[in-house]
Amino acid sequence: MVDCNTPLKYSPRERVMRVIRHAQADCIPVGEIFIDDSVIAGYLDCSQIGFKERLTFINKMGYDIVCLSPQYHCYGSDLPAAQDLVFPHLENWLLDTDIFTFVMLDGIMGWGNKLWGFNNFMPLLYRSPLSFEAFVEQVEKLNLEILDYLLDVGINGVIIADDLAYQRGLITSPAVLRKYILPSLAPQVRKVNSNGTPVFFHSDGNINEIMDDIVEAGFSGIHYIDHHAGMDILDLQSKYGKQLCLWGTIDVEDIENVNDRKHVQKLQTVISNFERKGFILGTSCGLFKGIDFNKLMDLYETLLKPPNMKEEYYNK
């Protein structure tokens, strides 16, 4: 059973870095890959969400992590230029807080789906492989330029998000992914790893068939891990626990069953298996409008006993 009742030794930023490096932390870190403004507005009873409100929400929840996504304008089917992407309040998060700050960048499928839509973009791979390869090169170049900036300002971590799978398996064959998409990840990962910054991979669905490729590319961890999609966290720990930090595991079913003692005990058993290293607790999908927030808070409190003890660091 998770025990966070002992005095805390590390700041949120230190705690997250330790578990990513597979060193034991004082408590399991908690973080969400996405928090919708409506969730924060409802919890704080406010209408405008800026840096101050988001930080207040994260502190009250005892989160160790904030994830930032760039804001930009796309015109037609063209990628934006690197200088046109804006990261709201990035310097505030890095300089004025001790929260571990991730930035999330889209991969090939992410950008393709945003610019053309899945039903228009995916057929391009088969209809015009050369055009698809050219787009892959453009996305890789864009991300490498963005990473130059992020590493220069001292970002704590990077997430490359590319939904390469459905619930039952990959969007296409592993061979096709290995030919056209996965090779573009390695240069980006090498860039981030060049100064010791961790980089995670996020994909929905079942990516078991390419997990070896994720490890080989040099990623520090993965996010999502939906057991309904066949991503068993203990199996992943057994196979890849020495190379990857695993982040996620909580789903809507877990939140709805917070009062089911046996269900929660299973979660506690899974979490205790990590011994406060190589694991970050959070939902698989992030916090969206409509999620039963009170039940989620109860679940966090039950699993972590309680995360809000971390406020001793926030309130110094």
Question: Can you describe what's shown?
Answer:
The longest helix has 25 residues, at 129-153. Strands 1-2-3-4-5-6-7 form a seven-stranded parallel beta sheet. Helices cover 45% and strands 11% of the residues. The model is unreliable at 306-316 (pLDDT under 50). The relative contact order is 0.16. The protein has 316 residues and is of the alpha/beta class. The chain is globular. It has helices at 12-20, 37-44, 51-61, 90-96, 108-116, 118-121, 124-127, 129-153, 174-180, 185-193, 211-217, 233-240, 252-256, 261-272, 293-304, 311-314; strands at 65-68, 100-106, 157-161, 199-202, 221-224, 245-250, 279-283. Helix 4 (90-96) links the parallel strand 1 and strand 2 (100-106). It has a domain at 65-219: TIM Barrel.
